[in-house]
Design brief:
3 helices; single chain; 8-stranded mixed barrel; mainly beta; 34% strand
């Protein structure tokens, strides 16, 4: 006997991937605190409460993953979750510098960023992308309270410390 065909109609057609398309899901490296950015295949542990003003502390954290800035909130709280990581100038230096945010420059408004915290997934959507001077700390100060948001920061241009690339995101559906 032949196997029945699987046909969908209505919403099923909208939700089903096109024939022959593989759906790839990236599993987080750590569900306690990590980041997954599907568009650029980033997947890294986040180290909490890193002093962004202490060079030795943040450099140590950045060797291990993405740093969560001390004084900023955690996912699920009102305020700003501020994360920062290395970028680099050449792809062959990505491993050397643990340049998790190497391809952050490829993200655009509307792209998804997933942060896992204490076993829960928080989905954010990029809503702003800009380049600022390193002295501009407006994105990190006053991070407690206000609308929930996520800020991602890396150096710009990649591999330098001339400026900062800042991407902000809001919880999906907000």
């Amino acid at each position: 006997a032949s196997e029945p065909s699987r046909q969908t109609s209505g919403f099923g057609n909208l939700l089903a991937p096109p024939t022959g398309t593989a759906v790839v899901t990236i599993s987080p490296v750590d569900t306690d605190f990590s980041i997954v950015i599907p568009k650029i295949n980033a997947n890294a542990k986040i180290l909490p409460n890193v002093d962004a003003a202490n060079y030795n502390e943040y450099m140590d954290a950045l060797r291990k993953g993405v740093a969560h800035a001390a004084g900023t909130v955690f996912p699920g709280m009102d305020g700003n979750v501020y994360l920062f990581a290395h970028s680099t100038d050449y792809f062959w230096n990505v491993g050397r510098y643990n340049a998790v945010f190497y391809l952050l420059k490829e993200l655009e408004v509307g792209d998804e960023v997933d942060v896992f915290f204490l076993g829960r997934r928080y989905i954010y959507t990029i809503n702003e992308k800009k380049i600022v001077n390193p002295e501009d700390v407006s994105y990190i100060v006053n991070s407690i309270g206000g609308e929930p948001r996520l800020t991602l920061q890396t150096c710009w241009p990649p591999g330098t410390s001339i400026k900062r690339l800042i991407l902000t995101a809001k919880p999906k559906g907000v």
